[in-house]
């Protein structure tokens, strides 16, 4: 009876937040989507030492577009949490940002120019930018509108951990901050490797799950951002060999209860894109038929991931994300590594 009541309450809550879920799914679904086109690492091969950038500067962005920047940018607008964080990670500053961004803290006082999934193009023009840094992953469908702004538009973004460094290097070159970007990348790599060194010898099998507004559950594959983090931490991801519908989350695969029981992971990590008061997937998974029988659910090894850090704003905070995931996957076995 108690389980039936929990399911009824969950159903009611999901109906109430369905609209919010759909809105958030559009944003985070696109974030997980389109892989960058072209070969950005090779295409952006500008000097990476201490040599100052020479303008006019022409770069290939992460969509393979040729972008010419006339002079060192002074009024830069970034239009997604990933691009905002990337600018500040390499030592840059902005005059405006998307409304979703709240990191680093100093961006809170900047004017907002729409949300990541719905840029305010008039608002961007009003800022008189000399460079716009848009998201080549979740804003690729807006490229024509961006190109009509009258300012150079650089498409960056991160669909995987490797993309983070590519985006940092590209943005650093565009801003005339190549040496600062290289320093930030070197630090990121050293700190990342220090976290990976703490991974215990024991192997752990982990599923990373997300639920849509219709209560369908999807598992992250290794080529998603969150999946690539788990791969760095040497977790076995059973979703790697699965195929099926992606729904609103490209890179994720529809997972049936039967498949989950067959895989029976040691740990389950969950993402809940809909804002509260929508229930957290980690809390309700025990009431979902089939999933309640999993060893991880019975043992209390179901953990909620920070949806901003792991889904909505993949970017330079890789080390923070890895550190959090390390403890969730391995617990105390990793604490003293």
The separation of the N and C termini measures 45 Å
Low-confidence stretches: 1-50
Shape: globular
Reading off the top of the CATH hierarchy, the class of the largest domain is best stated as Alpha Beta
**Count of DSSP-assigned helices:** 15
CATH topology of the largest domain: Rossmann fold
Name of the CATH architecture of the largest domain: 3-Layer(aba) Sandwich
How many individual β-strands?
A: 12
Encode the helix/strand succession as letters: HHHEEEHEEHEHEHHEEHEHEHHEHHH
Radius of gyration: 21 Å
- Outline the biggest β-sheet: 5 strands, mixed
> How do the strands of the widest beta sheet line up side by side?
10-9-8-11-12
How many structural domains in the coordinates? Answer: 2
SS-based class: alpha/beta
Q: Give the overall average pLDDT.
A: 87
Beta-strand share of residues:
5-15%
Q: Helix share of residues?
A: 25-40%
Write down the oligomeric state: single chain
Task: Write a structural description.
This protein is of the alpha/beta class and 337 residues long. The protein folds into two domains: 44-196, Rossmann fold (3-Layer(aba) Sandwich); 200-335, Nitrogenase molybdenum iron protein domain (Rossmann fold), CATH 3.40.50. It has helices spanning 2-16, 18-31, 40-43, 81-89, 121-126, 143-147, 161-175, 178-196, 225-232, 257-263, 281-284, 295-298, 307-312, 318-330, 332-335; strands at 57-60, 66-69, 76-78, 114-115, 118-119, 131-135, 153-156, 206-211, 217-220, 252-254, 267-271, 302-304. A hairpin with a 2-residue loop joins strand 4 and strand 5 (118-119). Helix 8 runs parallel beside helix 14 (318-330). The longest helix has 19 residues, at 178-196.
């Amino acid at each position: 009876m108690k389980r039936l009541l929990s399911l009824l309450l969950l159903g009611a809550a999901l109906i109430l937040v369905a609209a919010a879920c759909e809105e958030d799914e559009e944003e985070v679904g696109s974030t997980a989507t389109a892989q960058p086109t072209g070969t950005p690492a090779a295409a952006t091969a500008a000097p990476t030492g201490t040599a100052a950038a020479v303008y006019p500067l022409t770069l290939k962005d992460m969509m393979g577009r040729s972008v010419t920047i006339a002079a060192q940018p002074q009024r830069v607008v970034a239009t997604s949490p990933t691009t905002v964080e990337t600018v500040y990670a390499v030592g840059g500053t902005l005059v405006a940002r998307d409304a979703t961004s709240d990191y680093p803290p100093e961006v809170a006082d900047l004017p907002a120019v729409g949300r990541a999934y719905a840029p305010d193009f008039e608002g961007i023009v009003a800022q008189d930018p000399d460079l716009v840094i848009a998201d080549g992953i979740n804003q690729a469908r807006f490229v024509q509108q961006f190109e009509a702004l009258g300012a150079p538009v650089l498409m960056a973004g991160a669909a995987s951990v490797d993309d983070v460094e590519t985006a940092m290097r590209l943005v650093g070159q565009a801003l005339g901050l190549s040496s600062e970007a290289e320093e930030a990348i070197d630090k990121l790599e050293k700190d990342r490797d220090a976290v990976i060194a703490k991974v215990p010898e024991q192997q752990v099998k982990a599923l990373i799950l997300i639920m849509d507004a219709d209560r369908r559950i999807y598992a992250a594959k290794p080529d998603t951002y969150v999946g690539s983090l788990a791969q760095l931490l040497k977790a076995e991801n059973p979703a790697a060999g699965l195929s099926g519908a992606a729904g609103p989350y490209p890179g994720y695969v529809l997972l049936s209860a039967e498949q989950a029981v067959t895989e029976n992971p040691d740990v389950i990590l969950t993402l809940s894109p809909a804002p509260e008061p929508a229930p957290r997937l980690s809390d309700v998974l025990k009431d979902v038929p089939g999933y309640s029988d999993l060893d991880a659910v019975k043992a209390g090894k179901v953990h909620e991931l920070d949806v901003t850090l792991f889904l909505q704003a993949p970017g330079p905070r890789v080390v923070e994300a890895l550190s959090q995931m390390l403890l969730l996957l391995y617990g105390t076995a990793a604490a003293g590594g």
